[in-house]
């Protein structure tokens, strides 16, 4: 009852997601062994870039974990994991400057970031409710519940899709500024592209998986209506 041909496509997207995570870890590790010519740590690069962009009030904090780096738009804080905070590698500078890219987006009110922030609380609610509505709809053969579940799940998918331009834009800002501000040489751009490109792939895979899952539910919904 729950099997659908779209499951094959969802599984492919899931496989892409696993491969993307593997690529992120592999590229991060590889370029963590290549020190940036500037000799700056991730924390120094983030701090300097924030200062030069007029974001002197945005702190750079150390956060536990690996690849747990992020920009907190509520607290307005750039948080870097230990390997990035203390690291002087191409990987460390790439990740640190990428997170600063989000802080710059916040400063200039980058439209997709603003939309993502506004959608975040709704997405949290929708993501929690959607699975129960869909399961209930399938279990009780209630197309109305399935339809409502699809509606809520669509919000979560929209959030994933909006995340893509936000991440790509932050990476583009980071790469341009790292060169123009002298944090890396032009011949070191390859490593930056590898690190940030692999990271972007994880968001693409997640968005595809969510989108294909949504399409599967929509097809099941219409098939259920035809059977009724």
Automatic annotation (TrEMBL):
Q: Which Pfam family name is an example for this entry? A: Zn_peptidase_2
TM segment ranges:
6-22, 119-140, 146-168, 195-222
Classification via InterPro entries? Zn_peptidase_2
Q: Give the record's keywords alphabetically.
A: Membrane, Transmembrane, Transmembrane helix
Coiled-coil boundaries: none
The identity of this protein, by name, is: Zinc metallopeptidase
Organism of origin: Tumebacillus lipolyticus
């Amino acid at each position: 009852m729950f099997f659908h041909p779209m499951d094959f496509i969802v599984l492919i997207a899931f496989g892409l997601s696993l491969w993307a995570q593997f690529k992120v870890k592999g590229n991060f590790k590889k370029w963590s062994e290549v020190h940036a010519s500037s000799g700056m740590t991730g924390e120094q690069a983030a701090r300097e870039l924030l200062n030069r962009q007029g974001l002197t009030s945005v702190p750079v904090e150390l956060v536990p974990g690996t690849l747990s780096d992020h920009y907190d738009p509520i607290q307005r804080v750039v948080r870097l994991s230990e390997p990035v905070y203390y690291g002087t590698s191409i990987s460390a500078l790439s990740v640190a400057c990428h997170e600063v890219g989000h802080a710059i987006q916040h400063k200039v009110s980058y439209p997709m970031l603003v939309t993502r922030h506004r959608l975040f609380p709704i997405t949290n609610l929708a993501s929690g409710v959607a699975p129960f509505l869909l399961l209930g709809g399938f279990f009780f053969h209630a197309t109305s519940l399935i339809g409502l579940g699809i509606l809520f799940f669509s919000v979560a998918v929209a959030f994933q899709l909006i995340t893509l331009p936000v991440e790509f834009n932050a990476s583009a800002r980071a790469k341009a500024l790292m060169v123009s501000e002298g944090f890396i040489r032009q011949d070191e751009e390859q490593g930056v592209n590898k690190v940030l490109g692999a990271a972007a792939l994880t968001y693409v895979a997640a968005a595809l998986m969510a989108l294909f899952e949504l399409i599967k539910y929509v097809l099941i919904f219409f098939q259920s209506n035809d059977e009724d």
